[in-house]
Request: fold
Amino acid sequence: MLSLIETLTGFAAIMLMLSLLVKTLTSVVKNQADYYSDNLKHEVQRLALETTGKTWDALMQNPNTPDWARNIHWERLGGEILTPAYMGWFLKQLDQNARVFDLDTRLKIHVANVNYAFQLRMKNLALALGLGLCLFGNINAFTIWKSLYTDQQLRATFSGPYADKAATLANAQATQGTDPNKKPTQDELDSQIKSLQKNMRSFLTDVSFGVGRIWRTNAQNEAGNEKHSAEFFLYEFLGSLLTGILISIGAPYWHDILQALAALRPDKANA
Amino acid sequence: MKRLKITKLNAVILLVAALFLFVLPPLTPYIDVPKLGKIPLSGMQMFYAVLSLEIVLAVYIFGVGVLSRTQPQPISAGYAPQAGSIPVATPQPGPTAPAQKLPVTPQGGH
Reply:
């Protein structure tokens, strides 16, 4: 029973560490691609159509439209522009006949749309990156579980010091803000990439088992004949796919499981 | 019409993905990349790599990228608001404006 709890704790710690890696990777990609402004621009254009009855292109072709409206850098803007006072003024600048009453209620719906689309895209991005990391790195949850369950020393390491290290890292990352409106500076981006590289190297050093077996040149020979080779590839593929899905559930989920399992450990329970 | 286009597009994507998946691995030993030489992967490794790449690309394209439902679509003049959004604004009658009387529609008898 104790070995099962230790295996579960070690497994949760590894999944938490991978989830944190994917979280950082998602944040790096998000900051480079800027998915928020796409949806923000779209919602402002929808609001303009609803209040003026004209499409964005028609409004931009109007000679009365100010030049600055044609040259808006959407990537520099955040949700702070979606306030009734600012949007009322903005829509009046686009069209004097814009019907800007009841903007408060309308904007709440548009802000909700922007946030919903952004969050959904971030979840899908995390899933894509998680799957990419596990499939290309061939990080196999089955092999990790088997190694932890059969190796007592490994189990003790991963359910003890490694679990504490993962929990500390998760707590540190949880305190950092994740405001989608906040545009990071170049220095912040650089430090984020450095942190990702450091954590990735650290993970690969700590968890050397169950990683990258498929890319070894003798991967096929390990299993013998062709039938076994196909089984080996299927096993590695399904294991990596499952790991990708598991780590995409999210770091908070694994952190909660780790906390619950750590409380069951005899040394913690007696304390 | 839009639905038909998307279905055709999906079919084409599926066909190309299947083509890559089953044609590329057997050709691996014969592929010679300029300046890099031959690809040091076996047929099964290549199959795994292509399948992984296709899964990741599919999740990205359909979840985040151009074919995602959260990807903003171009707004045209005949644009219909999405379900759950509010209709195009119309001026409300002021408090002094006389209330319009709705025409009485004849109800069918039983």
